[in-house]
Structures are given as C-alpha cells and as structure tokens.
Amino acid sequence: MIGTLINVATVLLGGSTGTIVGHRLPAEMQETMMHGLGLVTFLVGLDMALKTNNILIVMGSVLLGGILGEWWQIERRLNDFGRWLESRIDPVQDDMADTPPSVGQAFVTASLVFCVGPMAILGAIQDGMTGDFRLLAIKSLLDGIAAMAFSATMGWGVMLAAITILLYQGGLSLLAGLAGAGFAASLTPNRPEIVEMTATGGVLIMGIALLLLDLKKMRIANFLPAVALAPLIVTLLNYL
Questions:
Q1: Secondary structure class of 219 (helix, strand, coil)
Q2: Nearest of 3, 16, 2 to residue 160 by alpha carbon
Q3: Residues 161, 107: contact at Cβ < 8 Å?
C-alpha cells in the first residue's frame, strides 16, 4: 500500500496548500479557475470516453448504474457523510451546508475525480501484487496538483477525498495481494473489461465537468455503480 499512502499524502499536501492560497484570491479569479478546471476535466473525461469499443456497453452501464445509484441513494449518503465530517471538524460551519461549494460537494467531486479511472485500479492492483507503486506515484503527482487547484476554489473539503483514496485504493491493493501475481499480469489497459470501464468512468468525469462549469446539476455519485457494471457486462457477453 506504499503507492496509496503516497497518494494520500500528496492530496493532503496539495489540498492544504490550495486551501491556504485560495482564500487570498478574489472571487472572480476563483470563478475563472473553477471554469478552467471544468474545461480541462471535460477534456479528460472525453478522452477516456472515446476509448470505448462498444458504446452500447457504456450506455447500458450508465443507465443501469444510475438506477442502482438512485435506489441506494449514493449521492445523498456521501453528502451526508461529508456534512457529518464537516460538523466534527468545523462545527461552526455545520449550518452553512447550502453555501456553495459545500464541504460535501467538494468531498464528492474530488473523490470521483481521484478514484474514477484506470490508473487508480491498475496502479493499486500492481502495488498490491508486485509492490511496484510507480503507476500510483505518477497518479499521486497528478492528484496533488489537482487537489491544489480544486481546494483553491472549493475549499478544504477536497482533502477529505484522501479518506476515499485510502479505503478504495488501499482495499484494492489488499485484495490484489491475496489474489496473486498471475492475476496482475493478466490486467492491462487494453483488456476489453478495462477499456469499457475506463470509457464509462470518462462519462462520469464529463458529468463532473458540467457541474464545475455550472451548466447542469446532476447526482453524479449515483452513477458510480456503472464503473463496476461495465466490466461485468463485458464478461457476461464473452460467456454468451
């Protein structure tokens, strides 16, 4: 889990730096930075989404994942968790959850950006099975820079995404260590399951971009099951 711990440290460092600097920036500059992040985030999501080999798999995953997410109320639960953490860390701000951007919104947005993507999954599995954390080290650098930019405009709630990274990537590394090195060798970015999972994650990233650009409010977290459904659908189709 060395790669995951490095990732957590860079997010906390970048997030704390951005939070300190962000308060010194004029509101107009913060808004411009937010829109710039939105544009770049949209480009990243589009690049991921275009990797699909079968758009029907992506569409099916997103639709079914959205249904499951609404049923399980993932977005509401994550926001409630973010507000609960906010009340424990800064009780004075607990009654200001409607002040945009809220801690819950920052937590959910950053968690999705940092964890939805092939580098998080492949890097965590590689780290857990072989001890090679180079891929996660690269991701850590990117996440640290992103955390600095996000926290400068969205506040300290971005740093709470370190909890998500620790649980998600750390859990994957532990499970991968139990699975064995043979499984790690079979996982490559070109595998159909990874390709469609990446493309589906890209759609979610594009949704986050729309939120950052103030174009459309969506419950993006409710689509999270789609990322897990995509490789399952590919596997199922291979057996048919």
A1: coil
A2: 16
A3: yes
What's the first-to-final CA gap in the chain, in angstroms? 37
CA distance linking residue 115 with residue 42, whole number of Å: 16
* pLDDT digit string (tens) for the chain, length 240 residues: 899 999 999 999 999 999 998 878 888 888 888 888 889 889 988 998 999 999 999 999 999 999 999 999 988 888 888 777 767 766 545 444 444 457 878 888 899 889 887 788 888 988 888 788 888 998 999 899 999 989 988 888 899 999 999 999 999 999 888 876 555 556 667 888 888 988 998 999 899 889 888 888 888 889 999 989 999 999 999 888
> Contact, 149 vs 18, CB < 8 A?
yes
Instruction: Give Cα separations from 2 to 5, 128, 144 (angstroms).
Output: 5, 9, 16
Angstrom distance (rounded) from CA 20 to CA 24: 7
Q: How far is CA 92 from the centre of its chain?
A: 28
Asked if residues 151 and 159 have their Cβ atoms less than 8 Å apart, the reply is: yes
User: Hey, what's the torsion of the CAs at 75, 136, 201, 216, to 10 degrees?
Assistant: 50
Q: Number of helices (H) and strands (E), helices first, in the chain?
A: 11, 0
Query: Which residue's structure tokens are 């759609």?
Result: 203
Look-up of token digits 């951007």: 101
Q: Chain-centre distance of CA 58, in angstroms?
A: 18
- Asked if omega into 118 is within 30° of 0 (cis), the reply is no
